[in-house]
TrEMBL record, chains A, B:
This is DNA/pantothenate metabolism flavoprotein C-terminal domain-containing protein. It comes from Erysipelothrix larvae. GO terms for biological process: coenzyme A biosynthetic process. Residues 2-101, 133-238 form the DNA/pantothenate metabolism flavoprotein C-terminal domain. The lineage of its organism: Bacteria, Bacillati, Bacillota, Erysipelotrichia, Erysipelotrichales. Coiled coil: none annotated.
Amino acid sequence: MKIIITSGGTREHIDNVRTLSNTSSGRLGQLCAEAFAQSGYDVIYIHGVHAYIPNGDILKIPVEGVLDLEREMKAALMDPDVVGVIHAMAVSDYFVSSVSNFEQLANHIENKTKKDVVHILNTFEEHGFDRVHKIGSNESGLAVLLKPAPKIIPMIKDLRSDVILVGFKLLVDVSETELIDVGYKLLMKNHCDFVLANDLVNIKGDNHIGHLIQDDHTYKTFQTKQAIAAGLVAKISERVK
Amino acid sequence: MKIIITSGGTREHIDNVRTLSNTSSGRLGQLCAEAFAQSGYDVIYIHGVHAYIPNGDILKIPVEGVLDLEREMKAALMDPDVVGVIHAMAVSDYFVSSVSNFEQLANHIENKTKKDVVHILNTFEEHGFDRVHKIGSNESGLAVLLKPAPKIIPMIKDLRSDVILVGFKLLVDVSETELIDVGYKLLMKNHCDFVLANDLVNIKGDNHIGHLIQDDHTYKTFQTKQAIAAGLVAKISERVK
């Protein structure tokens, strides 16, 4: 039995030396990987470049950006022995579509209607700086335009409706009611079996309040990363049986 | 004798979970720290959160963004025992001044002249999203506006004209002549004693071509990170005597 665990954060390149990064440490993903491996699963650990790395006999696949993750996820899901996906990675919701200085941008949007400005911003890919090289350090201002990246989580059940899918939702400083509500919406939308909903203000190192929401809208609350990892092993193993 | 070594990359927060990051690994800084410590220096290692960490009895000071680096550099330079600064850190040249979606931005810049557009982009700080919280993941586009961050390197000799200063210049895919020229300009401008100039295309793990430029415009070329670290110890120790 194999399980895919994604962990850490993606990073999208702005240029050769600058990135748009998600700050997840991958610590929870690491603990999940170790817990599943200790319970006899073959773990496929797809992780951001700065994520914590689990100990043990685990297949580790580093990825940079969303497109790398998409490719590796698709490849891993081809394996019929995969029974579940713990999608803990903080995936960038946006790509970098262009970088320009303020004058370059202003050249295109001066004297335009609101509608035209929005259209130009939406189609600015071919303008701005060459991002294969390093963008200069002496611009008086830079406009980094971002466009939506493909979503990874809806792809999973589309490709493999038989796997058990755990999604993750991180919000910042919201009520528990709102957190559970948003987490449950994610579950319904992406056909997750579970969603682990958490709030950044309740994460302090390994002390980590996480609510594991089920498809009947009930949820169980854990207090540490270790407890979340153990809880996931128990829930997945129950379903796999 | 104390030496300050900066290492790794800074990261500027876009919101609570997203950053603008510089990708330096801090590997060269780590090797410099270890080489100086082995030569009897007390090393103050100011490093980005993902930088390699040196072994040995070294004071380690983690920093996030440019302002943290500025504060820690100023504090460290107060110590009269500091004789040199190896400023290897990849410091962000830009801050995040605002994040907005395309409609928010367009509301402010529709039907404006080029000059007004540039002015509005330059003063957009108070507009856009509240960045204390996480920015939503379902915007059809985001405009991240960046403004110049304070430069750290000119501050060093201003505060302590007596320390030996090594600056770093990284370019991407340029001729050796251009690289040396740009490196020498950095040296003159910031009153560096040396500048280590390197090109990203000539950095492959520990194989790392680095040109150590002196204030007489001559330079010495090294082939590995280890050789660069050893070269810096030799040059600094010669000057300190």
